[in-house]
Amino acid sequence: MNTQQTSKVILVTGASSGIGEATATRLVRQGHRVVLGARRTERLQALAERLRDEGGQVAYRALDVTRLNDMQDFVAFAEATFGPVDVVINNAGVMPLSPLNALKVDEWDRMIDVNVRGVLHGIAAVLPSMEARGQGHVINVSSIGGHAVSPSAAVYCATKYAVRAISDGLRQETDSIRVTVVSPGVVESELADTISDTTARDAMKAFRRIALQPDAIARAIAYAVEQPNDVDVSELIVRPTASPY
């Protein structure tokens, strides 16, 4: 367990798998105090126990980012456990792709709720305290889908463009809080498992033929976290070298 750098209190949403799990693991092993949030608490418990066995400082709590009260309670739990929150990583996201003419309105609404409102709720829950202390770090996970639109991904891409817009708006509104938006390229994850549309699911299999491991994104996030308070790594795009996307 590396504890050489200053330990920070860090929240990770969507921490039960993929990028969230990898990021939480890396940050705990670097000596940070990390609070895991997700709906699948059995996975959070298993991850927390594994990291505690390694000597890490980690806690977890059930979290639905679409509910502001849930996010506020998550932050309060973190503060009661480890102290004021230094970093929030708004990572929770869903990706049920489909062509617009499939009219999967419920799935559109879910993406907006998790991918956009979830980020806003994460910001709302930590911003007052960070502003009062004059420091803090908000890290929002977007996507290469937030830089270019592709067929069957219009709504998903719209939510990820929104994450970039929200992030840059927050960055411009503050001179004391660091804001980072991370846009992963193709990464091995469970996101594609939520695709119910057959056409989109088949296209995604080809799209994900070349993919990064989640720890590649975790390393990028850790790099942004470790910078001093006067250095804001505003945006990172992380892609597989061999991928054209």
Automatic annotation (TrEMBL):
Q: Where is the Ketoreductase domain?
A: 8-190
Q: Name one Pfam family in it.
A: adh_short
Q: Which InterPro entries match?
A: KR_dom, NAD(P)-bd_dom_sf, Sc_DH/Rdtase_CS, SDR_fam
Q: Which SMART domains match?
A: PKS_KR
Q: Which terms are listed as keywords in the entry?
A: Oxidoreductase
Q: Does the keyword Disulfide bond feature in the UniProt annotation?
A: no
SUPFAM superfamilies hit by this protein: NAD(P)-binding Rossmann-fold domains
Asked if the record carries the keyword Oxidoreductase, the reply is: yes
PROSITE patterns annotated for this entry? ADH_SHORT (PS00061)
Q: Which family does it belong to?
A: Belongs to the short-chain dehydrogenases/reductases (SDR) family.
Protein's name in the database: NADP-dependent 3-hydroxy acid dehydrogenase YdfG
Per the UniProt record, the lineage of the source organism begins with: Bacteria, Pseudomonadati, Pseudomonadota, Gammaproteobacteria, Lysobacterales
